[in-house]
Every structure is written in structure tokens, then in C-alpha cells.
């Protein structure tokens, strides 16, 4: 299968030396990409800035901002049988990017932010027949209800609900524990286990559902 995975955070520029980002390390997305490769799939990994080694045997497309990720993903998605959006894409970016380094001034500074494109929602709208679309829902509250709502709203086949309020799993850790919710109402609890093992379980369930 041709598989596209996104991973990591995005960086949204404030000026030449500053940016907004989040705590994503990319570990879950890289584990998914590597597990898909080892299962024999042809994998493209669109990755925000992370400190992880470039995986062998995978086409890596490095990006920085949500806009760059949107462009890279939307260009490639139509050719893919499976798309997994694991990246922690910024929801907002500075409305104006200052050229050069912004000078310090007296008093407070207000940063005006604007929404970024919801890439997954766009993919849900342009989804070709037969393509499997998988999202992640990183939540601290009402995990399953919010995930189920996203599954519906973004026209997904599966969503992985990830409780990021716990420090032992989620962002930065080597372990994860997710609930995989299917469009057809199926529900699987996966983990706690290594991100690699969680990735393998997700892939097995999702690719089986596409046959
Ligand atoms: O709505 P929320 O941001 O919680 O949804 C999370 C899912 O949507 C993840 O799969 C994430 O990769 C994707 N997403 C996206 N573009 C955004 C924000 C989130 O593709 N701007």
C-alpha cells in the first residue's frame, strides 16, 4: 500500500529568530512510518522539525510550518491508499511575520494570531474512493466524545484518541496508550505499550478494515 504519515510539530514564525510551536517530538509518527515500512508498505513521511534520525527506506519530506505541511500533504494525498495525520499541526499562526528580529520595546506586546488550515479536514473533503483516512485527537478532557466528534466532522475512517494530560504517555514519552475509534462504531483500546507496538496495532486494525 502507498502510505502517507505526518509527524512532529509545526513551527509558526513570529520573526526571523522566534516561532510558536508545541511539545510534539514526532516519536509516534516516526513509529507509525517505520512500522508501515516494515509491514511492506511504500511510505512517505511528512515531518515537522524533530530531533529523530531519518528512517531508512522511507521518503522523508521535511517541512516547517502548517502551510508547508498542508502543501506537501495535499499534493501527495490523492495517490495514497492510507493517510495517517499524526502531526501536531499548529491551529494558529502569527498574522504578521516580522522581517528580521523584532526589537524589544517598553510595555506589553500583543501577538495577533490567525487560524491555520485544518489539513485533515481538507483531506476529508477531497478523499478519493477507497482511501483510508486516520486522524489523531490529542485531548486533556472528554477524550472519547471529542474524538468521536472529530471523526465525524473531518470525514475520517479512524481516529486515535490520545490522552495528553498524562505525563507517562503521549507527548515526548516512549510509551503510548490510545483508543482507536472506527467510523463504523468499532472501538479498540491499545496499550499502554511502546509507541512502536501501538503503531503496529493501529496499522494492523486499520489496514485490515480496508480489505
Ligand atoms: O481538531 P484537532 O486539531 O484536535 O484534530 C487533530 C487532528 O487533526 C490530528 O490528526 C492533526 O494532525 C490534524 N490537524 C490538521 N491540521 C490542523 C490541525 C490538526 O491536519 N491545522
UniProtKB/TrEMBL annotation:
InterPro entries: CoaB-like_sf, DNA/pantothenate-metab_flavo_C. Transmembrane segments: none annotated. Gene3D superfamilies: CoaB-like. GO terms for molecular function: catalytic activity. It holds the Pfam family DFP. Residues 2-207 form the DNA/pantothenate metabolism flavoprotein C-terminal domain. GO terms for biological process: coenzyme A biosynthetic process. This is Phosphopantothenoylcysteine decarboxylase. The lineage of its organism: Bacteria, Pseudomonadati, Lentisphaerota, Lentisphaeria, Victivallales.
Amino acid at each position: 500500500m502507498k502510505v502517507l504519515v505526518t509527524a512532529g510539530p509545526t513551527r509558526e514564525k513570529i520573526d526571523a529568530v522566534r516561532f510558536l510551536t508545541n511539545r510534539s517530538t514526532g516519536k509516534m509518527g516516526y513509529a507509525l512510518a517505520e512500522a508501515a515500512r516494515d509491514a511492506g508498505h511504500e511510505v512517505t513521511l511528512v515531518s515537522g522539525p524533530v530531533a529523530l534520525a531519518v528512517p531508512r527506506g522511507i521518503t522523508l519530506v521535511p517541512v516547517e510550518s502548517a502551510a508547508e505541511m498542508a502543501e506537501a500533504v495535499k499534493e501527495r494525498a490523492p495517490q495514497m491508499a492510507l493517510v495517517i495525520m499524526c502531526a501536531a499541526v499548529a491551529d494558529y499562526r502569527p498574522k504578521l511575520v516580522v522581517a528580521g528580529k523584532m526589537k524589544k520595546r517598553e510595555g506589553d506586546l500583543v501577538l495577533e494570531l490567525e487560524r491555520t488550515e485544518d489539513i485533515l479536514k481538507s483531506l476529508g473533503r477531497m478523499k478519493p474512493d477507497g482511501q483510508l483516512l486516520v486522524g489523531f485527537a490529542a485531548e486533556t478532557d472528554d477524550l472519547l466524545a471529542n474524538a468521536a466528534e472529530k471523526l465525524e466532522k473531518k470525514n475520517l475512517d479512524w481516529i486515535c484518541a490520545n490522552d495528553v494530560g498524562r505525563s507517562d504517555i503521549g507527548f515526548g514519552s516512549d510509551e503510548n496508550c490510545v483508543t482507536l475509534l472506527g467510523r463504523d462504531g468499532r472501538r479498540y483500546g491499545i496499550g499502554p505499550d511502546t509507541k512502536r507496538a501501538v503503531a503496529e496495532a493501529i496499522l494492523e486494525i486499520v489496514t485490515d478494515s480496508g480489505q
